[in-house]
Write a structure and sequence with these properties.
The protein has helices at 2-15, 20-38, 43-50, 54-68, 77-88. It is an all-alpha fold. The chain has one domain. Helix 2 (20-38) packs across helix 3 and helix 3 (43-50) packs across helix 4 (54-68).
């Protein structure tokens, strides 16, 4: 089931000329954001579930927060479409 949903999403992304780096970055960001929400923003618990070190997770979360704060409304149209597609899946 998830394989079919991913294939469909990938087809849409390829048609929209979404670059691989953009897709991976947005996927990781959303995946981490959802995992953090499920674990009530607890870095250590979330990192354990994701299979990464808590320091790695903390750095990535800080990077994402930094990216979103000053440029909150400055996403490209491709990034907006990709984020919307990932959230809809």
């Amino acid at each position: 089931m998830i394989h079919n949903r991913l294939e469909s999403l990938i087809d849409e992304m390829l048609e929209g000329q979404i670059l691989l780096d953009e897709a991976l970055c947005e996927f990781e960001k959303l995946y981490i954001k959802k995992a953090m929400a499920r674990h009530k923003q607890h870095i250590s618990n979330t990192a354990a579930i994701l299979g990464i070190h808590r320091n790695t997770l903390a750095k990535r979360v800080a990077t994402y927060q930094k990216q979103e704060s000053p440029q909150k409304g400055a996403k490209s149209s491709k990034q907006k479409k990709l984020t919307h597609r990932l959230k809809a899946s």
